[in-house]
Amino acid sequence: MQQSFTVGVEEEYQIIDPGTRSLKQRAEAILSRAESSPVNVEAELQLSQVEIGTPVCDDLAQVRAELVRSRRAVGAAAAEEGMLIGAAGSHPLADPADQAITPTERYLGMAEDYGQLAREQIVFGYHVHIGMDDREAAVQTMNRVRGWLSPMLALGGSSPFWMGRDTGYSSYRTDVWGRWPMAGSPEVFGSCSEYEEVIDLLVTTESIAEETRIYWDVRPSSRFDTLEYRVTDVCMSVDEAVMMAGLARALTRRCYEQAIRDEPVPVVRPELLRAAKWRAARYGLNATLVDVHGQRSRPAHEVIDDWLGFLRPSLEDNGDWAETSALVHQTTERGTGAARQRDAFGRSRRLEDVVDLIVAETGAA
Predict the structure, then answer these.
(1) Are 335 and 284 in contact (CB under 8 A)?
(2) Would you state the pLDDT for residue 365?
(3) Residue 328 falls within a domain, yes or no?
(4) What is the pLDDT of residue 2?
(5) Is residue 349 part of a domain?
(6) Which of 197, 200, 271, 341 is 20 to 30 A from 211 (CA-CA)?
(7) For residue 4, what pLDDT is reported?
(8) Which domain holds residue 250?
(9) Side-chain half-sphere of 69: how many Cα atoms within 13 Å?
(10) Has residue 217 been placed in a domain?
């Protein structure tokens, strides 16, 4: 069955006080303001964040337009409450002790189940849904995608600061998010039936309350006919968000084509996947990355270039090669969101200026 490879994106935004630059628990008021807007805005785990979801998009031009529209609409709703919004994987000044869980049955249940782990999730992610009408094909594609996610994470780090300190990480969100019991890389599944049996087992044993609490880096969506990527921080700029959507779409298509040709699933040790992910989160583009398939450490730019080469046939088939490759090269030259935040801090030694950069890039169209 030919897949659609449509694209949908979800972004999580920070709610920021323009005076203090701190996170503010104003989600409920902003959601009320946004009810009349044309975009889909929803509550998230913390009262200091909201999430948008784009409509189903047929191409990257539509993704870009929808992200610009969403950021402007939520920004306008926040402005009516005297607030700003920011897109970055962490807030440089936020302390989890100062935040509050959104008081809905779903989120209060998560806080009850997970305790301090849930309260510490002051992080902001980016999810890409790629249309796949066949769930069996989605599982087989996931099996092949899992070995290619560390370059995506290396390009997408935007969470270097945590509770007022430089963590040394490009994506410290990866460390915080990885504490969930069902986070990380999925294993390989022989079939969709096996995948569903494992999900049922986790629910039956009360390991998770429902399928939506599977937080793997890539997974068949429980809500849509999509393969969902969850590995990266939310992107500061729209350019980076479009880049990630193009990469996810191409990776899905490339791995789907391998699956329908019945090419063997690459044998990748879970220990190596964990090491590759950690290195991408820790260093971003500033050191070596683990070449999972070559089973060696290599300079980040070489790994990224080889990954682009692997994706090029699918990027060209999707009509995305020129834009996506240009955006990747822009990111490697300009620096990731994490690198730009560190540059801003280096100029003034003020984390408030880092927050200002996040807000400015979020709102730039």
Answers:
(1) no
(2) 67
(3) yes
(4) 72
(5) yes
(6) 271
(7) 87
(8) 7-363
(9) 15
(10) yes
